Task: inverse folding
């Protein structure tokens, strides 16, 4: 069994949970705003609050991963977190543009 340092394990788990948070955000957004049977009369405040909190957690995880990967000079995770941060921001801006 390969034993990795604590920093690499932190980066792996941060990347894993970042992907899970992103999938959760996209799933909630699709189920609530794109694929419902009928359009809601008013916006569901609980879902919007949940998505806001999840985007906050995603931002914290991505910034933490970027900082740690930069500190230990791990190119793979620097690229991963940088690209994932751009994808998350693009998704947020697209969602904001579509739904106002």
Result:
């Amino acid at each position: 069994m390969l034993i990795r340092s604590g920093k690499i394990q932190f980066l792996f788990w941060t990347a894993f949970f970042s992907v899970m948070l992103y999938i959760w955000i996209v799933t909630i957004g699709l189920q609530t705003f794109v694929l419902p049977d009928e359009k809601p009369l008013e916006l569901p405040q609980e879902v919007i609050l949940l998505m806001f909190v999840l985007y906050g957690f995603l931002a914290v995880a991505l910034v933490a991963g970027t900082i740690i990967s930069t500190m230990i000079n791990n190119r793979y995770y620097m690229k991963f977190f940088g690209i994932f941060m751009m994808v998350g921001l693009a998704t947020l801006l697209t969602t904001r543009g579509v739904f106002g």
